[in-house]
Amino acid sequence: MTRKSRRLWLVVACMIGLGSAAALTLNAFSSNIVFFMAPSQVQAKPPPADRTIRLGGMVVAGSVRREKVKDSPVAIFDVTDGQAAVTVRYEGILPDLFREGQSVVAVGTVSPDGTFRASEVLAKHDETYMPKEVAEELRRSGKWDPRFGKAPDAASWNTMTASDPKKPATPTPDGN
Amino acid sequence: MNPELGNFALALACCMAAGQAILPLIGANRRDARLMALAPALAVGQMIALITSFACLIHAAITNDFSVQNVAANSAVSKPLLYKITGVWGNHEGSVLLWAMILSICGGAVALFGRNLPSALQARVIAVLGGVAAGFELFCLTTSNPFARVWPAPLDGQGMNPLLQDPGLAFHPPILYTGYVGFAVPFAFAIAALIEGRVDAAWGRWVRPWAVAAWCFLTCGIAMGSWWSYYVLGWGGYWFWDPVENASLIPWLTGTALVHSAIVVEKREALKIWTVLLAIGTFSFSLSGTFLVRSGILNSVHAFANDPARGVFILGLLALVIGGSLLLFAIRAPQLTTGGLFSPVSREGLLVLNNILLCSICAVVLTGTMYPPFMSLLFGKTISVGKPFFDATTIPLAIPLMVFMGFGPMVPWKRAQMWPVLRRLWWAACVALVALVVATFRMRDILPVMATATAVWVICSSIADIAERLRLFRQPLAQSWQRARSLPRAVFGAALAHAGVGIVVLGIAGMSQAAHRIVEVHVGESEMLAGDSWTLTDVHPAEGPNYSALVATIEVRHNGRLVTTLHPSKRTFASQHQTTTEVAIHTNLMADIYGVLGDKHGDDANPTYVLRLHYNPLAPWMWLGGLIMAFGGALSLSDRRVRVGAPRRAKTVDVVVVQ
Known about the structure:
The complex is a heterodimer.
Chain A: H1 3-32, E1 33-37, H2 39-44, E2 53-59, E3 65-69, E4 72-80, E5 85-91, E6 103-110, E7 116-122, H3 132-140, H4 154-160
Parallel strand pairs in A: 1-2, 5-7
Antiparallel strand pairs in A: 2-4, 2-6, 3-4, 4-5, 6-7
Chain B: H1 2-30, H2 33-62, H3 69-74, H4 81-86, H5 92-113, H6 119-142, H7 167-182, H8 184-196, H9 201-232, H10 243-268, H11 272-294, H12 308-332, H13 347-378, E1 383-385, H14 387-407, H15 418-442, H16 446-470, H17 477-486, H18 489-511, E2 515-522, E3 526-529, E4 532-543, E5 548-558, E6 561-566, E7 569-573, E8 578-582, E9 584-587, E10 591-601, E11 608-617, H19 619-637, H20 640-643
Antiparallel strand pairs in B: 2-11, 3-4, 4-5, 5-6, 5-7, 7-8, 9-10, 10-11
Subcellular location (chain A): Cell membrane; Membrane
Family (chain A): Belongs to the CcmE/CycJ family.
Signal peptide (chain A): 1-23
């Protein structure tokens, strides 16, 4: 094996390795990138039903209610960016820091009826924390300027919401 | 008084590091023995000063000296003693000081254990370490001083996030940091070799133990971090592919490649330029990983807006260290001679393949981690890349890596025939095939099945490697025992580390088959999961030292026989207005039974509780395998070759390039 053929072999091996890595990356990017959307964007242009997105905003105060489907608890709440609100259905345990009136990010898909089916709900382990995407979206919609202090309570945003006010939390048969 | 002493010691260490960076370099260039002899002395002095400084900070935390701002912000009188100590490195300032201290300990270790190195090389290595240390100590002093005072001193501190009050997390950062910082030594060796213009077998042999040691710590650190997120966060997951985790995985991948390519340099004097580049790359990834991620640049490009000085300093320092070393590499690398020839089918060939695949995985992880922040920086688009992306890209690359890993240790150097190797591995291949068939019937999805088969293959081929070397079952056992005693420990270490990888992958494949259910039940009700019946028998309140808790009792029965009783709980910390979830885990080493208590609903007379129940097959194997890998590395470090028998440089004309 001469030096030249060894080099050729090395180059081919590297090309195969990095080439397959690049191919895998591009392939995965085309199907697995998760876009962030605010509720108003979701309402204006709903993504296809098989597309996973991250929905971020504030949990509308008083909107959290629970249902029970086949022994599994389902949490339902509205997420708003001050312009529109989207109803989120989440089958699972809400994180410890999930509160009404605080920011939240939900990962999931938009179902044809317009509700958002979350597979994951994230609330950061910090009360004063607001996810960057949420803060950015609030600023863009003109509801909040970080120079004037903390974000307003989501309860007040709800009244700013253009869409119909959601029906209040109704007690469910099992006594909630 | 004490914090001032600590601050002074830090400043002193910074000055010594600056001296350590400059004087030995001059000495090595002029061949001035006295200046070169300064290097070990300064390195040890700097180490002592920084240990003193760190001890002062710990003392301030233990004695509740809330006039120190760092202590006031992160500690409280009511905090248990252990967390007062470990809380010192649970914040930005303290962790930078810890980082600098570990770096100085590395410098001290090179000074103390590196006496058999040629004095010029040792002086240059210590000088490079001193240069890096000086930069970070200056960063610590000017922008994030842990000894800054606050006036008036508050009566009590603000306390610590309850989530961090956990023994697992307490010892995780020092081990992880030792892993990160440990790669500074191979980096310094690489820079010193570039300055000298010479890399040879002896260099490979000197640099490898340092790389292996750092790799062991990093492996342990990553395993501990993953274990912590598994049992503290209570999501039933062990790896979330978030930027902080990826920042530790990237240097681990290149570090693993470095550990392997250094073998080729040591044995065959080939791949020299590549190994030097890997050493530089690994430390660069460690540096950018710790600092870019911790300062929040990956999560948010605006994080530095809070403290622009800090961000600019760190970016400048990173640019200097990484850019400078790459520039030096570009200038000097062509002067390094390339070494031994080998055929594609040979030990070297397989190690090259290992490097290519590891670096491809690294490139993929790096792309997935860096793409979202770049997109938001350049195009203002907010996107994220999660587990599906990383699963789809890393696993297909890891499977060929595992397949070749089985062959690696059996293939001879230089030129090899496949047939004899295959003949010795036929039974391992058969077992892997059986595993493939069994897994096809028992598991969902194709990737876990492939992963299981290759993991079994790797474990069996490691056993085959050792059995072959001992001539097990082909000679009387007594003779095999004799062979075992004379076999270098590095061989056992390598086999153990490879088997550890197999065990980790089996654990990951098992976890992909995990079952979980979220249920809402009354006390006394039962639910079925994975063939077990889970009964919530009791929920009662309990008081802790600084929290109040709600403790559940869940009985898990298999065919009516009691398997275990779990006590998951929910703690509410009044002072921080925070709730934490305490997971209950029962393990029999083949599977974890994992229970989480969620919210309480309904009226107090007949409430319902949300429970999250997990059945995680083979979960403990992931961390067990990680420990086995690290243990294998440690075993090869204890090899006689490393401890005694200082390698000598081959007699060649000393190449000193004067520019």
